[in-house]
Amino acid sequence: MSLKTENVQCLIIGSGPAGYTAAIYAARADLKPVMYTGIVPGGQLTQTTDVDNFPGYPNGVMGPEMMEDLRKQAERFGTDIRFGYVTSVDFLGTPHKIIVDESHTIYADTVIIATGATAKWLGLESEQKYNGFGVSACAVCDGFFFKGQDVAIVGAGDTAAEEATYLAKLCKTVHMLVRRDEFRASKAMQHRVLNTPNIIIHYNSDTKEILGNGKNVTAVKILNNVTGIETDIPIEGFFVAIGHTPNTEIFKGWLDMDETNYLITQPNSTKTNVEGVFACGDAQDKIFRQAITAAGTGCMAALEAERFLASRELQPEVIKNSEEV
Ligand code: NDP
Which of 12, 96, 125, 152 is placed for a possible disulfide with 112 were both Cys, Cβ 3.0 to 4.6 Å? Predict the structure, then answer.
């Protein structure tokens, strides 16, 4: 089978805020970036409704609209945006070899990884039904819409603890659903939760169903897995904070990752352990996970790619050499 092959200076994998911001900077620096969008062009924000915390939108913006704006801005400076999914990489030699859709081979002098992360969901039908209509996987993004109301959050890790205390500042009551009889979160975070009066902790509690009126969430049905007692808690908002999975599977064996598969970058940098390969956005950030922080690291990645290319003389022959690897 003859495979289509091409060489690019800068390949961007992923099309969330990190990828598009990297594209804007790389294109303006004349790196002629090629971007592969992945299966969900625009990333996680295309699955949200209002975005009120991204600077520059005084009246807020819908997630899909914002991503469309970012796409147009990246295209305006000449980014070659393509729908496609990177199926494997080979970072052994330079340029770096990337296979798209198992059929197209790209040799890239620099690679910017902006593949993001995927929120874990409980897997309930009602959770998907009310996603964006009372159900959210991001308290910082959507907590504001439940000001003065009663909400629930499921999870017991650092994210859930952090988000519960964030919600407690805005909402009347936060019901925290912990499936075991203890937290996973650090002691410091637990301390904050336990000392916040309007957080009610429900230990040994499984989420059975999110109840609603067809339009909005009205309650959550929980089951105490010790007593077997089911309870409906009236709420307007339901937050899922049971962890994220970084989309980094294809980089296993090539790039350094932490124990939860987030890519490790050098301090104050987007450099990975492979020269010319940079990582930005949620694929390397498990702490902040905001569109604006992703955009910030996307900018850093493009600037570092530009500096990397400027600092070395690239030999066109290496392309040939890599094909033999
Ligand atoms: P974690 O994987 O640490 O925690 C996930 C939590 O969700 C666990 O308490 C788990 O319960 C619970 N959970 C998982 N599945 C279900 C389910 N189906 N039903 C109910 N509960 C469920 O994820 P986090 O996002 O909290 O944290 C990820 C990493 O990021 C951690 O290393 C954390 O320390 C770090 N982090 C650090 C922060 C900081 O330093 N400020 C802030 C946020 C995250 P169980 O405990 O029973 O397994």
Answer: 12
